[in-house]
Amino acid sequence: MKIKNMSITNVTSYNEETAFEFDDHLNILIGPNGGGKSNLQKILAVVLSQFEVVPLPETGG
Description:
Number of domains: 1
Shape: extended
Largest sheet: 2 strands, antiparallel
Structural class: alpha+beta
Strand content: 5-15%
């Protein structure tokens, strides 16, 4: 799967709509501290991850 572009709005540090376009070969995130680089990585990780619902075991009290 390749992501060509994405738009983020109202998620973590992206309050206004922010658009990203990705290259087919290499993408580098450069920006100031607090600019949202790590948040973009976390958002991509969530989007690309597979979710599996696993019920938590009940604990006796």
